[in-house]
Write a structure and sequence with these properties.
The protein is of the alpha/beta class. It has helices at about 20-30, 45-55, 95-105, 120-125; strands at about 10-15, 40-45, 60-65, 80-85, 110, 135-140, 145-160, 160-170, 175-180, 195-200, 205-210, 215-220, 225-235. It is about 15% helix and about 35% strand.
Amino acid sequence: MSKKGEPVSRGIAFIGGEGPPPDLCRAVFEEAALGGKFPLTAAADSGLLAAEAAGLRPDWILGDMDSLGELSRLDSYPPERVLRYGPEKDYTDTELALALLWEKGCNELWILGGGGGRLDHLLALRSLFERDPCPVRWITAAEDLRCLKAPAEFSLSLLPGGLVSVFPLGDGPWEAESAGLKWPLAGLPWDRGFFGLSNVAEEGSFTLRVKRGRFLAVWPLASVLFSAGFRGRAAG
């Protein structure tokens, strides 16, 4: 992902599974714009349906197209922007979409979709955040997830009493601090298998400071009011 001092170039991967409603997908797309430049987009298989429902035409469409339904919808896109793979490929459609966006110069990737469905698919998506590079944001129909790597400081406003869960990623060591959470993160014995589940942003606003290691933070999408901004560097 983006290194310190390196300009951020965002990309969004629309994937299958349960994702945010069309109006929120569109809002996230617009939120991801930097300096008036919209993010590069890639739709993985049925992620195309979510992108189109939001009124967006992805820059790239790729995958084995086994869950897209009517394939004639691909005819309106330039053939060179539609990348088809056989069903016995080595990588998932989501992995292919992320790899393409990184290849095209994006250094901060967001994922839209992928909620619900098969547990093995959810575990596979979660494992993507253990890698280098890795996505920095994942939005499903019900959750907003952020990957934060030291040194990073992230602030957000939720509805008062919003739940916040934090999981360590990577090899460690891990160290984090918080402000605005009922149970502070400072001094917790972070290790593999340890987590901070269902913490509470009592007044709504909270801040996470990652001093060492990498963390995945999760909160209910419905409780998000607005982002107070990301400071530091993206994960990866």
